[in-house]
Here is the input.
Amino acid sequence: MKQQINEIKRMQQLAGIINENLVNIGTHVLDNMNDEYKVISITPDKIILKPISFEGENSIFPDDFGNNVNIDEFWNYLNKK
Here is the structure.
């Protein structure tokens, strides 16, 4: 039961990030190197980014952005284009 409550809270947090900052599928973002990505998938624990300004594999936020990074920190690492 506690795990289900935590999952609901997590989904609410992600929904807040998505709605408050207008992150949705199709949003274009830039990383700190000015590489451009397109949001192609959003789940409760990850956002999948397709590179636009270079050839490469998709990036998964937060997994590909370092240790101890969590989904709530999306806008700390990426900026809206």
Q: What stands out?
A: DSSP finds two helices and five strands in the chain. Residues 2-80 form one domain.
